[in-house]
Design brief:
mainly alpha; globular; about 140 residues; two-stranded antiparallel sheet; 9 helices
């Protein structure tokens, strides 16, 4: 997504508690709460159609539960400790997520149609320079 000139989010593949997307999702929640998250990002935050929604479903967390945990955690380390106590968070579920999350939006994977519909607004660089997944679209669009 565009308009990240004053802030930098973790990359989609960055990990916390061994889990990709977790540090990025937490950073988006924090930036939203401090009114620093760009409007387009706020629109997509926690959407059931995007990566946030897939993450929440994978680990059986409600959007409100995640927001509350981020707000209560004084650090990423504290958030990681909370995350690892959740019943649906296991080595197997984290490994599964880390394997399939980077493929979201790829042909034959969840999010394929969504990626093609939202790229015009959220990931404009991918219109002229096609990518294969949502992770790739984010990486490309946030790169200077």
């Amino acid at each position: 997504m565009r308009m990240l000139s004053t802030m930098t989010l973790p990359r989609p593949t960055d990990q916390l508690a061994g889990c990709c997307w977790l540090p990025r999702f937490a950073a988006k929640v924090r930036a939203s709460r401090s009114k620093q998250l760009p409007f387009v990002y706020r629109l997509a935050l926690g959407s059931s159609l995007g990566i946030d929604g897939s993450f929440l479903r994978q680990f059986k967390i409600s959007h409100q539960q995640f927001i509350h945990a981020v707000e209560q955690a004084p650090s990423n380390e504290a958030l990681a400790q909370w995350f690892l106590t959740l019943p649906a968070v296991t080595d197997i579920s984290i490994t599964s997520w880390n394997r399939h999350a980077p493929l979201l939006g790829s042909k034959g994977c969840p999010g394929y149609l969504t990626r093609h519909l939202i790229k015009w607004v959220l990931y404009p660089k991918s219109v002229t320079h096609p990518v294969g997944s949502l992770f790739e679209a984010i990486e490309q669009d946030e790169r200077p």
